[in-house]
Amino acid sequence: MATGALLLACALLAGVAVAQRVVTVQSGPLIRTEGSHVTIWCNVTGYKEGVEQDFEWSMYLPSVPDREIRIVSTAQPNYAYAVYAQRVNSKEINVERLSGDSAVLHITKVQAKDQGLFECYTPNTDGRYLGSYSARTNLTVIADSLTVAAPAQTLSKVEGDTLQLTCEVSRTTLQHTHLSVGWYLRSPEDAAAPPQELVTLSRDFVLRSGGLYRQRMAAGDLRLDKTSATSYRLTIHKLQPVDQGLLYCQAAEWIQDPDGSWFAMTRKQSDKTQLRIQPTESKLRVQKTNQSLSYLEDSRVRINCSIASQTSQDSQHAVLWYVRRATGSEADELLLRIEKSGAFEYGAYADEERLRRRVQAERLSPRLYVLTLNRAENSDSGTYYCLVEEWLSDPDGAWYRLSRESSGFTQVLVRQPEVRLQVEELEANVTVEESSSIRLGCSIPSQSSRDSRFSVSWYVERSDDDDDEDDVDQLSDEERGRECVFSIGHDAVFGNGNCSPREEAGPNSRLQFERMTSDQYSLTIQGARPTDAGRYYCHVEEWLLNPRNAWYRLATNNSGFTIVNVLQQVSTLKSVVCSTDALFYFVFFYPFPIFGALLIALLFVRYKSRSNSKSQEGKNGAPLLWIKEPHLSYSPTCLDPPALSLHPGSVD
Fold it and tell me: What is the CATH number of the domain that holds 164?
């Protein structure tokens, strides 16, 4: 029993220990120079999970250690006292939240009056108080005594000369601090570009160099020497054109905080030295012939870039190809760059205009470069030129650019084929009978390209009969009642032209389309109807394939009118009788049996009467007349009426 109670008590104590809130602040004292940017971090642990913590910063002056001066809070916007309110509102003092339980206090320009004890307080969010809710650190603000001095001057040197510059760096800080001193170069061509580090003596007394100058420092052409307690001398042997620009010295004063990290309390720069370097006289000359070239789409465009002379036989060249769009862009666009090593890279313009597959650069000889545009298109029109850079190697094997020069301008015009589409414009007047066929032709005697394809459509215009022909010509398409009769696209798909016909193509269609040759088309309307009368014409669209394998319409043209008149059939007795089978049989078939029966009956009666008279006539010696059976012939068609013929018999 006692053992169980002991275990329970230990568990409760362990739970209490785990649940205790702990606030941690950056260890002090923190020593900072006046005017520097001060940061103090603060973390909290042991709180109820899932609740974001707030942070309140206050400070206590050394002269009044018991009076709290509120500075800034993440929860209360008007938390600061009047002495800090203006600096908080201007964001000179602010709190940066790193996470739900971590924040950093920023004082962008610390002042001497900010020296004191800083407290980070986190309001309770657990419903009960257990653990610590605040932590403090001491901030000491000292005067900024760092000085960096170098004369502001302008120097002119010749390529290959030696340059020496001296920088004086000192400070009077009582605390133990370290200095770092370095020389930097800012390019005169791009003021917005970050400065390039030449050589730096770090706070750990280690020399380092950046970028292209590392190799020159290893070769002994770049040095940084501490000639006295405060003097630092930069030496550059064998000056190159790339060394031209603004040179200055920059120093930083470092102090080590109680947590072991180093902090740069202040950084300062010296005045700048304007360095101009006269390069070795360049003999680079690029041919500057201006010319204008005109091409048809899908042609191959070739532009030459010829180097007439160079400074040395060991010179190497980098060639950049530019284009100035015909529409007038703000800056010339880089197509591609050929490095002196032979490698090349495309410019952003080549990627945007999808030129990678069509543009080609060649080096035909050490002084002749060629740009080729395959399958040129209209958007390639513009002004092209090359920019040549001449590079030389110094005695240590480092390459530097000696000079650059551009070529003449080549005006390139890429045009679409000349429109030569013609459609036969002869007019015709055709009269056909109802139920016969209407044949409409469409002839294309001239086309713009041998690769052209055509979309052909037939239209009919219908107007009132009482309208004069001159008035019809003056009407618009809508007023004329233009209707699409048939259409076939350039892809040989029916109904895929520039209109949608009412009567769809199919096995039961009255329309019959035929393409006799590549420039001869015909449309036949079978079973002509009176409603088919009108003014017919064909509409031709000429299509070509552009270099991007997309079809585009080059031109359109219309043929002359074919005026079609349809004669209606007149109703006659013959047409009425032949119109239905029932009426035909009633007129030409059923009467014959009846007529035959009546005729037989009539002959039989007559035969009887003559038999009686024969006996009497025979007695008297009179001859008898015999009648054969009548021969009845008729036609099953409507062309001939039935015929009845009587043939005489023989006299016995």
Answer: 2.60.40.10
